[in-house]
Design a protein that fits this description.
Number of domains: 1
Structural class: alpha+beta
Number of helices: 1
Strand content: 35-45%
Helix content: 10-25%
Largest sheet: 5 strands, antiparallel
Shape: globular
Length: about 80
């Protein structure tokens, strides 16, 4: 799993930080945790990869899917 990390993967670190991989280097990954905030972690600090890679913000299908997930979540609340 650690060797397969790539840009766009949603991850959780061993410290509980959630974010999206914005770059992958040989021994580290850069994780975007908020708009304009990126943190570099050792690959070994990644505990979990959650879900599929995040689609580009300009991808219309991704926006539709995201909207459906939000409405499903609110309906279950």
């Amino acid at each position: 799993m650690i060797d397969a990390l790539k840009k766009g993967d949603k991850v959780v670190t061993i410290g509980g930080i959630h974010g999206t991989v914005s770059a992958a280097k040989e021994k580290t990954v850069i994780v975007k945790v908020d708009d304009g905030t990126k943190i570099e972690f050792n690959r070994t600090a990644i505990a979990t990869v959650i879900g599929e890679p995040v689609a580009d913000k300009n991808d219309k299908k991704a926006k539709v899917d995201e909207k459906e997930e939000t409405s499903d979540t609110s309906a279950n609340a």
